[in-house]
Specification:
With 183 residues, the protein is an all-alpha fold. Helix content is 64%, strand content 0%. The protein starts with 20 loop residues before the first helix and ends with a helix. 20% of the residues are buried.
Length: 183
């Protein structure tokens, strides 16, 4: 009779392994871009920070699903968008959560130099764009994604991306022209 070593008992849950170190460093480098994207979705800083944190947590938990030859930014943007949609659906069932905007509560810090003020005004104009326009504008114009990549991230047809870009540019140009004219 041959002696065999006892086999370990199967675990009832999957064994988690640490994500590869390269995804961690790539994810850290992606944080500013991911926050800008989250800000266009949530339209406020604290919620954007929460979304970025949830996205990073999920990306690290699911690092084994990411293929290194694919675009990490697109993968995390899609993850952030899906998390945001899920959160919006949950929030619609529990209206009146008691959140107060920081500007209404008087908690906003005063603006610094003129360029910071101009940047803030520009961001306000971008955030005033209709839903979907700001996100599309950020992905294409700021992050440098192609229309096809933005369409894949947002899960919309490429024609919708082109339409939103044209509309966003037109609305932003009109708003900035009005602002410069002092209207």
């Amino acid at each position: 009779m041959a002696l065999t070593s006892p086999q370990p008992a199967p675990t009832p849950w999957p064994v988690m392994t640490a994500p590869p170190p390269d995804i961690r460093s790539d994810l850290v480098a992606l944080l500013p871009r991911l926050r800008r994207f989250a800000l266009t979705l949530t339209r406020n800083g604290p919620d954007a920070d929460d979304l970025v944190q949830a996205t990073c947590t999920r990306a690290l938990e699911r690092a084994h699903q990411w293929a290194p030859e694919t675009n990490l930014a697109a993968w995390t943007y899609t993850m952030a968008r899906n998390l945001w949609i899920s959160d919006r659906r949950r929030a619609s069932t529990r209206m009146g959560a008691g959140q107060v905007d920081a500007a209404e509560a008087g908690l906003m810090a005063p603006h610094g130099p003129a360029d910071a003020l101009r940047g803030s005004q520009l961001m306000d104009q971008i955030m005033a764009l209709p839903e979907g326009f700001a996100t599309t504008l950020l992905l294409v114009s700021v992050e440098g994604h192609s229309y096809a990549e933005a369409a894949a991230v947002l899960d919309i047809p490429i024609g919708t991306v082109m339409s939103r870009m044209a509309g966003a540019r037109k609305k932003l140009r009109a708003a900035l022209t009005q602002e410069e004219a002092g209207l």
